């Protein structure tokens, strides 16, 4: 099952070795180990731009993984792949599923906001001002939530909220 890793850098190799050691030492079930191997192989494939292979591994991991916290990160990574492929609706679905399992994922909230912001810009260019306002309002809502969870991150989003006058609930 382990993926052949072609161009691993030092950090990737170190992570893989340490993860394998931890899995051998910790009292985890065969299923938990198998789910982790699929997840790790998915991350490796994703980092190399092998998105189809990454998705296969993530979907396998989802079939096995039962822990909601771990499932949230698998769903988040699936969302990343769909977003990077321009499939924003699918990406939003997976980000929302991840948040249902783990509300403390500021990166998912940020990515949702980025998609809505992008849709707002597109709507503005197409002179659909009502739609653009709705998309920007949604972007603001999600960025505010992300900033509450990670106040030192998303500086550009914080600046956008301030300069557009949309910052209304962050103190």
From TrEMBL:
Secretion signal, residue range per the UniProt entry: none
InterPro entries documented for this protein: PSI_Ycf3_assembly (IPR022818), TPR-like_helical_dom_sf (IPR011990), TPR_rpt (IPR019734), Ycf3/AcsC/BcsC/TPR_MFPF (IPR051685)
GO biological process: photosynthesis
Keywords from the named record: Chloroplast, Membrane, Photosynthesis, Plastid, Repeat, Thylakoid, TPR repeat
TPR repeat positions: 35-68, 35-68, 72-105, 72-105, 120-153
Main location: membrane
UniProt keyword Zinc, yes or no: no
Record Gene3D superfamilies: Tetratricopeptide repeat domain
Membrane topology reported for the UniProt record: Peripheral membrane protein
HAMAP family (alphabetical): Ycf3 (MF_00439)
Protein family per UniProt: Belongs to the Ycf3 family.
Function: Seems to be required for the assembly of the photosystem I complex.
Entry-linked PANTHER family: CELLULOSE SYNTHASE OPERON PROTEIN C, TPR REPEAT-CONTAINING PROTEIN MJ0263
Protein name, UniProt field: Photosystem I assembly protein Ycf3
Lineage: Eukaryota, Rhodophyta, Florideophyceae, Rhodymeniophycidae, Ceramiales
Originating gene: ycf3
